Amino acid sequence: MDSLGIVPVLRVLAAGDTLFRQGAPTVGVFRLLSGGLRLVRATADGAAVAMHTVRPGELFAEASLFSSHYHCDAVATVRSELHWYTKDALQARLQASPQTMWRFTAALAHRLQGLRSRFEVQQVRSAKERILQYLSLSCDATGQWRRQGTLKHLAQEIGLTHEALYRALAALEREGRIARSEMVIQLRQRR
C-alpha cells in the first residue's frame, strides 16, 4: 500500500513503449517511479504535440477518473517503472478517505501550478531568455537541471525548434550563463 492507500500494480516499460493511446478506454491513474514518460497528443493534421514530460514521483492521467477515454498517448522515453492505480479502486478510495482525497487534490494543484509555469515560459519571446526562465523554474537548489529524455524533448516542452534550442544553449554557454555536461545544465550567476 502506498500514499493513496491502495496496493498498486507495478508496470515496467522499455524505452519507446506506449502505456496508453489517445482514444483508448481509461483504466486508471499512474505514478512514475523511475525513468521518464511523455504525454503527447495528436493534432487534427497528425502532428504530435508534447503536453507534458512526466518525472519520477509524479501522478499522471488523473483526468481518466472523469473520462471514458485517454486524451493523449503516454510513451516511455527511457526504461520506466510505474504504479498503476485502477480506476475503480482509486475512485472508491477517494470517496472513502478525506485524507487521501486531500493528498490527491494537492497533487492536482501542484500539477496545475506546473502547467501555468510552462505556459509562462512559452510566452517569453527570446529563445535564450525562454531557456533561462525554464531553468530558473526547474533547477534544484544548487542551480542544476538534470535532463529527462532528449534535448529535442526539452525543445518541444518549451515551444522551440530543436535547432533554435541548440543555438541558444551554445550562445548561453559562450556567454558563461550556463555550463553543460551530457545530462546536466548548471545555471551560472550573472556578473
Helix content estimate: 25-40%
Radius of gyration, in Å, reads: 18 Å
Low-confidence stretches: none
CATH architecture of the largest domain: Sandwich
Question: What characteristic shape results from the CA principal axes?
Answer: globular
CATH homology superfamily name of the largest domain: Jelly Rolls
- Beta content comes to 25-35%
The total beta strand count reads 11
**SSE topology string:** EEEEEEEEHHHEHHEE
CATH class category of the largest domain: Mainly Beta
Biggest sheet: strand arrangement: 1-8-3-6
Sheet with the most strands?
A: 4 strands, antiparallel
How would you describe this protein?
The chain is of the alpha+beta class and 191 residues long. It has a four-stranded antiparallel β-sheet. Strands 2-7-4-5 form a four-stranded antiparallel β-sheet. A three-stranded antiparallel β-sheet has the order 9-11-10. Helices cover 36% and strands 27% of the residues. The radius of gyration is 18 Å and the shape is globular. It folds into two domains: 9-121, Sandwich (Jelly Rolls); 126-187, Arc Repressor Mutant, subunit A, CATH 1.10.10.
